[in-house]
């Protein structure tokens, strides 16, 4: 395996994805051309097509990476989403891109805590609780991003907890 080529490809992918995210901060996906993206990333079209099938392919790549990292926070946070809020604050442009592309309605919390569902809701209507929590957390993050993540991640966790007062998160 050629380590130099692997590193070069990884750097090219990172550069291309960063350029794509930057363009999406001021344009809609339909307004971006592959030529424009390649110019901004400093690559040629052949290099772009070696990694992606098109703009939707790069968007899906970014979505998958972001969802994979979010899934880790859902799985390991023990009901404290402070690290998730820290991740959002550190990667604001990525999250804005995720929401701008409309992926937030497609994301599933796959590791919903059944223990909480059992304790708080008697394991009734779990799918409704999952959707309610997902929608609430998503909207909370969107509003926070709109305000430039002015509040601290700890304050955001306090807001989330206050919405679940009376329930053990």
Describe the structure.
By secondary structure, the chain is mostly helical. It is 69% helix and 0% strand. The chain is built from 9 helices and no strands. The longest helix has 22 residues, at 3-24. The mean pLDDT is 84.
Helix content: 55-70%
Q: Tell me the number of strands.
A: 0
Alpha carbon gyration radius = 19 Å
Q: How far apart lie the N and C ends?
A: 46 Å
Q: Which regions have little confidence, pLDDT < 50, spanning 5+ residues? A: none
Coarse shape = elongated
Helical region count? 9
Question: What is the ordering of alpha helices and beta strands?
Answer: HHHHHHHHH
Mean pLDDT: 84
Features:
169 residues; 0% strand; 69% helix; mainly alpha
Layout of helices and strands:
Layout: H1 3-24, H2 34-41, H3 45-51, H4 55-76, H5 82-90, H6 92-100, H7 114-121, H8 126-146, H9 153-163
Helix pairs in contact: 1-2, 5-9
Summarize the structure.
By secondary structure, the chain is mainly α. It is built from nine helices and no strands. The chain has helices at 3-24, 34-41, 45-51, 55-76, 82-90, 92-100, 114-121, 126-146, 153-163.
């Amino acid at each position: 395996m050629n380590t130099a080529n692997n590193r070069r490809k990884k750097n090219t992918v990172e550069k291309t994805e960063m350029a794509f995210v930057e363009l999406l901060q001021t344009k809609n996906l339909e307004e971006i051309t592959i030529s424009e993206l390649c110019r901004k990333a400093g690559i040629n079209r052949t290099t772009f097509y070696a990694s992606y099938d098109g703009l939707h392919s790069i968007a899906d790549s970014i979505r998958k990476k972001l969802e994979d990292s979010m899934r880790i926070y859902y799985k390991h946070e023990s009901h404290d989403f402070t690290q998730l809020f820290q991740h959002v604050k550190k990667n604001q442009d990525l999250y804005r891109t995720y929401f701008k592309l409309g992926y937030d309605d497609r994301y599933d919390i796959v590791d919903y805590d059944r223990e909480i569902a059992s304790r708080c809701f008697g394991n009734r209507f779990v799918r409704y609780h999952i959707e309610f929590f997902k929608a609430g957390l998503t909207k909370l993050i969107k509003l926070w991003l709109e305000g430039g993540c002015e509040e601290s991640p700890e304050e955001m966790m306090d807001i989330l907890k206050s919405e679940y007062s009376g329930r053990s998160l």
